[in-house]
Amino acid sequence: MKRILLVLVLMMALVMLTSRVTHAEETPLTIGITGPEYVAPSAPFEVVVDMKNAVDLVGFQMRLLYNVDQFTFDGLTESEDLTDVVTLNSNTPGVLTLNYLDIDVKINGDVDLFTLTFIATSGVDTTPQPVIIEEGVYNNEFVTLDALDVLGRVLDFVFDLDSYEVRRGLMGDVNLDSALSIHDAAMVKLFSIGLIDFDPTQEELADVNGDGFVSIFDVAQIQQTIANAE
Ligand SMILES: [Ca+2]
Ligand SMILES: [Ca+2]
User: Fold this and answer.
1) How would you write the pLDDT of the chain (230 residues) with one tens digit per residue?
2) Which ligand is nearest to the CA of 208?
3) How many domains does the chain have?
């Protein structure tokens, strides 16, 4: 009887040990996005969709949504980290469906997936807006190959897309005419020496070098940008 108990205890210990190994905490596969903090009204801008903590990944299918009132989709450029073609369906405004598979190349670690180009609608909007979010109803899938080259689904993945937001406005364009000119440079100069007032939107647009202050350095950068455009 004692021996049977001992065997039972040993078996239980073994099961617990095994399950601890199998369920070891792993950082989930995360799909994220990076891009500019401000985007110019009516101008194209790029956001990079990346993947973190990939383990022997060979493919994915996912559907992403964007706000058609704020942005127009203007194309996809595939990352050099990918070895096959990303198939994109963007026929429905506001919806991007993406597919990728290359079973010959395993993706590991942190990689860029693709760059999406959007065009912001006109006007200034200092309220931060998410550019793309996950389509939660869609069956998003990520596919791995194990050591025996057996295909498997990644069940533990996270979309971190709506934490990235942009504000619409052309940096330096403090007179809000959607163009950068010497009038803007002059106004920023007058504000930096306290001769005129700006509203909060103008003050944010005036800090073109992003150091938190409106100064003569911003004026110089705006003048440089105008000179380079000529
Ligand atoms: Ca302007
Ligand atoms: Ca500044």
Assistant:
1) 566 656 655 555 555 544 444 444 678 999 999 999 888 777 789 999 999 999 999 999 999 999 999 999 999 999 999 999 999 999 999 999 999 999 999 999 999 999 999 998 877 787 889 999 999 999 999 999 988 989 999 999 999 999 999 988 888 999 988 789 999 999 999 999 999 999 887 888 899 998 989 999 999 999 999 999 88
2) 2
3) 2
Contact 33, 131 (CB under 8 A): yes
On whether both 47 and 84 belong to a single domain, the answer is yes
Q: 147 and 85, same structural domain?
A: yes
- Distance (angstroms) between ligand 2 centre and the Cα of 214 equals 4
User: For residue 161, what are its two tokens?
Assistant: 């897309």
| Ligand nearest to C-alpha 182 | 1
Distance, in Å, from the CA atom of 102 to the CA atom of 56, rounded to the nearest integer, reads 11
Rounded to 10°, the helix 182-192/216-229 angle is: 170
Stated pTM of the model: 0.71
Q: How far is the CA of 69 from the centre of ligand 1 (A)?
A: 24
* Residues less than 5 Å from ion ligand 1, measured at CB: 173, 175, 177, 179, 184
